[in-house]
Design a protein that fits this description.
18 helices, globular
Length: 952
């Protein structure tokens, strides 16, 4: 007898298409097994040989949270390169490191949560570092390149499966899980959706992650746009992964649903496929799903749809064909090529903002003073990996120019903290080994605890000199002589234990608050002052208002940071001030900035350097723009935190080994007064970003200088087969090889509605030797000229004249031509046929868009306590109207007027409806003359208007 070999199940048959294999596997899974797949940590199904699977691996600019890995520049720095080929190669390198790391650590996931395509609408957003640009075209171009690198080139199997973050209209950390972004249809379709859409349509996206916030009154995790928009852009199954804890927020903080069963069912039906909630514990989510099934809120087919989309990603990742997966044996990790790429990316991200008098590049024999809080730092952010290599600006400059020619002053005050008893804080010697936060990797680094293996600070007669680093807004860090930062661990003791400030709740930040004859030292993470106890320095139980709640310290300044800067600056040929931010302090996830201003202490250091030496170069190393007074600074550069090669990259730029060619990916505003409210998402009415801003920026979008000069000539344009063909030449008229970023903008010359002042349509970064000339050609589809016609509810290209502008930035335009485009003319709104959807206004004041129902639809309400107004232009009343009907909820009145005329009708909801989703209709007679009129609707009281119709 011979043993019978069981047949290969169809889901293991690689000859079958993925869809049929998924059908087969899905049919074999029990309901409980399928429910288990809905949590981020999907368990194994051993009886079928299906492995456990985790959605989510952070990979924004390197493999994050899993220990040492190559660290590239922050995402906003990659955006500043304007180089899609470079960014594709970064994505490729990163995805190979994901594969290599997974081979030795199965905690590393292949479903990468990156890139972030939220537009950098507002520069005070705490997560500015995570996005690429304020412009949707540049953002989608960079994101598309990155996702193609992450995906890999194989036609069937993906190296990693990228998920775009964070859907949708998400630019505030302040109240991020309870605030609603009011996004009118034009802004939605022309701005916020566009970056997602163009990236998804490019074909290398596995899914999206909804954001914590609400849009138009509805949480993103139950957004109808997942179904109505996202899933219509591609034939591929897209996996929607919730953000961490967001499913619970639907009940706990947003109070949008009464029960978690309702909330989970609504999110699943809206399109969420994988629930990231309660860490590795799946029992809460699976229990809620079972409860929803029992209550009839879900069907098994709803669950099947979500599981199918997850399985689609897993099949594409080669999980079920390990012997045929071309990426399975990838070992590329920290290779020489990756190190070179990290250096190249860091160099290409540097933006030269100003270079008066040709101070840069520096001569080889320059005696250089390097000063500032960031001069000897290589900062990481929340989504960084652990550094394998580290080069600070100081280290890079000493290597490039020689240590003997480079002097250094950090510019921090060296202090002693004297207690009320006359003793001083003392940092005991420690025998424990140095440790780097997160070096061992963690599925959730927010759970990493501070070190308790080191002795707490004590007091003694002489004390330990501490470095006081002032990050602005009263936020300080204190560093011991050995480089370790004072930190508070779970036991409440203060130790010199942290290699850098960091963590989900930063435990290394303090405030010195004036109190009686000295200062309270308040720990920001706990909110409590520091006290001196018999077992060492610790957080007090009280808040500092009562006796004995906290120690009163006298701050004894041993050395002034400004004096140290002045001294080294006066002895140098050139001073380099390296200023900027720590990505964990005053602007990060969970915390928006409050101002564009450079922190006061760093402003004083800059003044001290400039006073001592007029040849001062300011290098801003930051995750966001600053409004800095540079009138007396001859040279100014900006770079995002540049990863492992940040210092050597900056040194090579300053030395002229590489000509800078980074370009600003967002507008640098001159003052806080130029900014809209953080929660004002209407970029059109608010005149936001370079698209609409009418003021004078500090530095415009696309700006960046070079050590070379460039000519632009020979602009030609022609329209053929629905495409605008643009060509011109760019020549290097300088004497060094350099990159130029040629930028093409368009502008509608006589628009019928507000349109961008100019809008990026294409760009190309090219390398040119001295005297070299190259032709650049762009093909611009007619869709690039479209806007969202609220009257017709679709994108439309308007006929007429458009300017084609070519240049080196959005304001440095070198060539201009006018083209006359065919299109569809505007037509009056046929209001007698379709009425007016309240959300389809042309203009508004003091209103916000709210949810018509919890599943879909929009209404408009006045801002609380204010009278609102909606304007609808060019409404065609045909032969005239004799009646008006409004569909509304709440209570209050709707007033109708035409143009600037008097109120013609008042419609009152009295008594009001039972709830915000209980709509009723109110009708009154009105006489509207025949013809076309502008309609104005005044909203008074807490009324939610959905629709207006007219009758004869």
């Amino acid at each position: 007898m011979t043993a019978h070999t069981p047949p290969t199940p169809p889901f293991r048959d690689r000859q079958l298409p993925f869809a049929k294999r998924i059908d087969d596997l899905l049919s074999r899974l029990t309901l409980d097994e399928k429910i288990g797949f809905l949590h981020q940590f999907a368990p194994a199904v051993e009886r079928l040989g299906v492995a456990a699977f985790r959605t989510g691996q952070e990979a924004l600019h390197g493999v994050a949270w899993m220990g040492p890995a190559t660290v590239f520049p922050q995402a906003v720095g990659l955006g500043a390169t304007w180089n899609t080929d470079l960014v594709r190669r970064v994505g490729e390198a990163l995805s190979k490191e994901v594969r290599a790391m997974r081979a030795r650590d199965d905690r590393v996931g292949l479903n990468v949560w990156s890139p972030t395509v939220n537009l950098l609408r507002h520069p005070l957003w705490g997560r500015n570092e995570e996005g690429y640009s304020e412009d949707p075209k540049l953002t989608s171009a960079i994101a598309t390149a990155y996702t193609h690198g992450l995906r890999g080139e194989h036609s069937t199997y993906w190296r990693t499966a990228p998920v775009l973050k964070h859907w949708l209209a998400h630019n505030n950390e302040t109240g991020r899980d309870v605030t609603s972004s009011s996004v009118r249809p034009r802004v939605l379709h022309e701005y916020d959706l566009r970056a997602f859409r163009e990236t998804v349509e490019a074909g290398a996206v596995a899914g999206v992650m909804p954001a914590y916030n609400l849009v138009n009154g509805r949480p993103n995790h139950v957004s109808p746009y997942l179904r109505e928009q996202l899933r219509t852009w591609t034939d591929e199954d897209l996996l929607v992964c919730s953000d961490a804890g967001a499913p619970s927020n639907l009940v706990d903080s947003e109070h949008y649903f009464d029960t978690h069963e309702e909330a989970t069912a609504a999110a699943l039906r809206a399109g969420v496929d994988s629930f990231t909630d309660h860490g590795t514990d799946s029992s809460q989510i699976t229990g809620r799903v079972r409860g929803a099934l029992e209550r009839g809120l879900l069907t098994e087919s709803d669950i099947d749809a979500a599981v199918r989309r997850q399985l689609s990603v897993r099949f594409r990742l080669g999980e079920f064909d390990p012997e045929y997966d071309p990426h399975a044996l990838t070992t590329d990790f920290d290779t020489p090529a990756h190190r070179v790429l990290a250096q190249e990316a860091a160099e290409q991200a540097v933006v030269l903002l100003k270079n008066d008098g040709g101070l840069l590049p520096l001569a080889p024999d320059t005696r250089l003073a390097v000063v500032g809080l960031l001069a000897d730092e290589c900062k990481l952010d929340w989504y960084s990996g652990t550094l394998l290599h580290r080069c600070t600006p100081l280290a890079g400059l000493r290597e490039r120019f020689g240590s003997e020619r480079v002097q250094f002053a950090e510019g921090v005050d060296r202090i002693l903290l004297k207690t009320s008893a006359g003793t001083f804080l003392h940092v005991p010697e420690a025998d424990a080994e140095d440790a780097v936060r997160g070096a061992e990797g963690a599925l959730d680094p927010a759970l990493l605890a501070g070190r308790t293996d080191l002795p707490p600070l004590t007091t003694e007669a002489t004390g330990t000199e501490l470095s006081l680093i002032d990050w602005g807004e009263g936020v300080l860090t204190l560093r011991a002589p050995d480089g370790r930062y004072l930190s508070v661990a779970e036991d409440g003791h203060v130790r010199a234990s942290a290699d850098q400030p960091g963590g989900w709740v930063v435990q290394e930040t303090f405030r010195l608050e004036p109190h009686e004859n000295g200062h309270l030292l308040r720990h920001i993470g706990t909110g409590h002052p520091i006290s001196v106890a018999a077992d060492g320095l610790k957080v007090a139980d009280g808040d500092g208002d009562g006796d004995g709640d906290g120690e009163i310290f006298e701050v004894v300044v041993v050395e002034s940071g400004e004096d140290a800067v002045s001294q080294v600056a006066s002895q140098a040929d050139v001073v380099l001030v390296v200023a900027g931010n720590d990505p964990h302090i005053n602007g990060r996830e969970t915390e928006d900035r409050t101002t564009l201003a450079l922190p006061g202490h760093q402003e004083r250091l800059l003044r001290a350097a400039r006073t001592a030496n007029p040849n001062t170069v300011l290098a801003l190393v930051s995750a966001y723009p600053y409004a800095v007074d540079h009138a007396e600074v001859p040279a100014l550069l900006w770079t995002a935190h540049g990863g492992q090669a940040a210092g050597s990259a900056l040194a090579r730029i300053l030395a002229g080994d590489v000509s800078p060619a980074g370009r600003l990916p967002q507008t640098w505003y001159a003052d806080d007064s130029d900014l809209p409210d953080l929660l004002d998402y209407d970029v059109i009415a608010g005149r936001q970003t370079y698209l609409y801003f009418e003021g004078t920026p500090l530095f415009p979008f696309g700006h960046g200088l070079s050590y070379a000069s460039f000519s632009y000539e020979g602009l030609t344009t022609r329209v053929e087969d629905g495409t605008l063909h643009v060509s011109f030449t760019v020549g290097n008229t300088g004497d060094v090889t350099a990159d130029e970023v040629a930028q093409l903008y368009t502008r509608a010359m006589e628009p019928s509605v507000p349109r961008p002042r100019r809008e990026l349509a294409a760009h190309q970064r090219v390398t040119l030797a001295p005297g070299e000339v190259t032709e650049i050609a762009f093909r611009v589809p007619m869709s690039a000229f479209a806007f969202w016609d609220v009257a017709q509810g679709r994108l439309r290209v308007a006929p007429g004249l458009h300017e084609i502008l070519v240049g080196a930035s959005s304001e440095d335009i070198r060539l201009v031509q006018t083209v006359d485009l065919d299109g569809e003319p505007s037509v009056p709104r046929p209001v007698m046929v379709g009425g007016l959807g309240a959300v389809d206004f042309d203009d508004q004041s003091d209103t916000e868009i709210v949810d018509r129902a919890k599943t879909s639809g929009d209404s408009v309400a006045p801002v609380a306590g204010v009278e609102g107004e909606l304007v609808f232009r060019d409404c065609d009343f045909g032969e005239g109207a004799a009646g008006i009907t409004v569909e509304a909820a709440g209570e209050g009145t709707v007033e109708l007027s035409l143009g600037d005329g008097p109120v013609l009708a008042v419609l009152t909801l009295s008594p009001g409806t039972a709830g915000p989703y209980d709509y009723s209709t109110v009708s009154v007679p009105v006489v509207v003359a025949a013809g076309v009129h502008d309609v104005r609707l005044g909203l008074r009281g807490p009324v939610r208007l959905a629709r207006v119709t007219f009758s004869v």
